[in-house]
Amino acid sequence: MRARTSRPWVAESDLAVRPYAVTVGRTRPLRALARETMVVAGPHRAGPPPGAEQARTVRLCAHPVAIAELSAQLGVPVQTAKIIVCDLMEDGFLVPAAVEPALPSDPDLLKRVIRGLHAL
Asked: 65 pairs with which residues across the strands?
């Protein structure tokens, strides 16, 4: 039997668990994380992550991904994604990703770039 909704235009598959149910009512992450923080699946404890959203998050983190991107892929607010990520980091399922700088740190190159920008 299909679930009844006051919004018949919403597909049943689009009805998701409320964010406060995923975060067990918490509204703040355990540590300060920026939305651009990159995380990746790490060496985790024996056993699967505790819930469906957590397991999906770990699968999405097979390669480094930003918390904002996880938020979009999970369909949850950024704050909810931060809480999920923090919990998974505490349990050892996720670790911060080492990110290489976008530009080389060659001082001569940086000086030329700055001079070029000033010339504009």
From this structure: 39
DSSP of the chain: -PPP-S-TTS-GGG----HHHHTTT--S-SS---TT-EEEE-S--SS--SSHHHHHHHHHTTS-EEHHHHHHHHTS-HHHHHHHHHHHHHTTSEEEPP---SS---HHHHHHHHHHHHH-
How many domains, the chain?
Answer: 1
**pLDDT for the residue numbered 118:** 92
Q: Is residue 3 part of a domain?
A: no
pLDDT classification of 15: cutoffs 50, 70, 90: very low
Identify whether the C-beta of residue 39 lies closer than 8 Å to the C-beta of residue 64.
yes
- The CATH number covering residue 17 comes to 1.10.10
Model confidence over 29-72: pLDDT tens digits? 777 888 888 999 887 666 777 777 888 888 999 999 999 999 99
